[in-house]
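Appendix B. Raw example, untouched.
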Amino acid sequence: MFTRSHRGMTIVEIVSATAILILILSISFAAIRSGQRTQAGVQSTISLTGDVLAGVRQLRKDLETTNLTSVSVFETPPSCSMATTSESQPISEFGTPAWNGHIYYTLEKSDKKVAKLIRWVLPESKPG
């Protein structure tokens, strides 16, 4: 009688192994893509949070160095202005705050639900 050697793989085994490998690779690829999307979303949130914190710090600093009676608020466009002192000489020769500049904040629409907070400073007025 002839004995048959079982050293090779059948076509069914090769197809089954290939199908399992493709399934594992598909799941791995989907998990990696999901992780990349999550990381991009988190990075965007971190960047936005940093921008908001920087804006809040600047607004707080401006409000701390302003004459609160000089704050004016406008409805259209949503904005406000306030008197401020110069950083180089915040006190006048009489020991009072030197209100010699103005800071303006306004909201500028960029999309339907998104707006930018714009800050600009009017140059200091020169004495005399």
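End of appendix B.
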